[in-house]
Structure formats: C-alpha cells, structure tokens
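Aim 2 progress update. The chain analyzed this quarter is reproduced below.
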Amino acid sequence: MHIDLPVIWAAIIGLGVFIYVMLDGFDLGIGLLFPFVATKRDRDLMMSTIAPVWDGNETFLVLGGAGLYGAFPVVYSTLLPANYLPLVLMVVGLIFRGASFELRARSVHSQRAWDVAFMGGSALAASCQGIVLGSLLQGIRVINGRFAGGPFDWLSPFSLFCGIGVVVTYATLGCGWLILKTEGGLQRSMRSLMRVLAWVLFGVVGIVSLWTVLSLPSIAHRWFNTSHPGWFLPVPLLVLACVCGILWSVKRRHEAMPFTLTLALCFLGYSGLLISIWPTIIPPALTIWDASSSHASQLFALVGTVIVLPVVLVYNAMQYRVFKGKVKNSDSAYH
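Predicted structure tokens:
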C-alpha cells in the first residue's frame, strides 16, 4: 500500500500551525488589549488568565518549524530568505513579550516600562506573522528550488494589511478569552470591546478575501471557476453566521460562546487559506511534493512525531483542564 507521506506531513504541520494560532493567538491578544485597560489590578488579572498556559501554547510553533525543516526542506530555502526581516522581528517581539511577562511581576518602579514592552512585543509578533502570511499568499519567486527574489519582496500593501488582519484576529481571540475567564468590571469592558472587534474582524476578513481573489487570478479561479462552486460557498456564509453569533452571544451575556465562535472564525479563515493554495506550499507553483525531503527522511521523522505529538496534545489538554474556571481577583498577582 502506497503512503503519501508529503500529504501526511502537510496535515501534521497544518494542524500544528492552526493549534498555534488558536492557542498563542489569544495570549498574544492579551498584550494587544493592554492599551484598553487602565488599572494595574485589571492588567494583573489579564496576565493571570494566561500565566499557567502561555509557555505550552508556543510548543506548536516549534512543531511547525521543526516539521517544515524535516519534511519540506525546500521551504527553508525559499520562505525564510524571502521573509528574513519580518521573521527576525517576530522572534524579537516574542523575546520582549516573554521577558516582560516574567519581569513585570517582579518590578516595582519599572512595571510600566515592561507593560509597554509586553504590548509592543505582542503587536510586533502578531503583525509580522500576518506579513509573512501575506507574502506567502502573494507568491514567492522560486527558481530551481531556491528563492530568486529580493530582500524586500515581502513588503507590499497586501502583506502589511494582512499584518493588521492578524493583529485584529488575535485581539478578538484575547477579548473572547477574557470574557470566558474573568468577571465583574473587566468582563463588562471586554463585552463592550467585543462588539466593536467582531465588526472590525468581519471587515478585515472581507477586505483580505476580496483583495486576494481580485489580485491573484489563480486563487480567483479556484473559488469561482469551478464545476462545484457549492463546495466553497458555505465558508463566507459561515463567517457571517459566526460574527452574528458573537454579537448575539455578547448581548445575551454568554461567557464561552464568544470565544468559541471566534475560534470557529479562525478555523474558517484557515480553511479558506488551504482551499486557496492547496496543494502548493509556496505559491504560486511549488507543491508539497516538489518541496518534500526523501521518503526515508519523512518516514524517520514521522515515527518520532507519532510518539511525541500525542504526549504534547495530552499535556496541553491537561493544563487547560487543571486551570479551567474563572480567575478571581484574589489570584490577580502573577508570581
């Protein structure tokens, strides 16, 4: 029986990237929401909602990067050189965010400076992730399996707007998380903010979607010139349904539904991306089979992944189970 290892590895990496966006997205969103919260007590409480889980959330970023290196090495010789600056800035943002997370709780006179570092690091990391996504969608010049473009090919109005889109997405996820995990005044302010963010996110998704299909003919052909257009029609309709559901659930004071529906929106956006580019891994023409390593290398790495990945998934599930429930005001200090 023939096993198509590139497809299996594409599924594993795709799953890892989505879980990273889903989990690290909301804790990056906490930093993006700091400017909307003025009091130290509420900011401490926001930090406490993610203190037990934020380290584990970033595990899936490592999984995605290591999986790409082992299964699709050609991606490293194309995607990384094409996006050196935004990727380096993303790492810088994550470093500042991680350092400020630990140090702000132990600082007395410089806590405000670490708050700024936490906000700036979160915004920098989120926007750079969106810029890389935008540069990937608009296409990367590849010749003989190597990047053939310039150092600033990633810089375009489309990629910059995708950076804004990811920032809005993560802020909405963070807002939904705080509605779920907090109560009282902070929860009320997040409900009010969620009404605005839901509409902004809907607008951003619509603009990116239209911009993509209007400027990239290959993606427009995939969506509109197909013999089975009904397969793709549910995606935009479900996006609208999720936004309406978020607004309705906030009005009815549901606690879990805004966050759940925002996760559903992320899934729909991610599925739309996969529909647009599959089976390419570096648009416009480099497919998963063109970019894959040898069969033996992929099989060897798959054995280790099959052993390790369930352990990582179980560990992450357990940490959310152990720390489920509301974070009370008395728990607001992070030590």
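The two ends are 54 Å apart (CA to CA). The mean pLDDT is 85. These observations will guide the mutagenesis experiments scheduled for the next reporting period.
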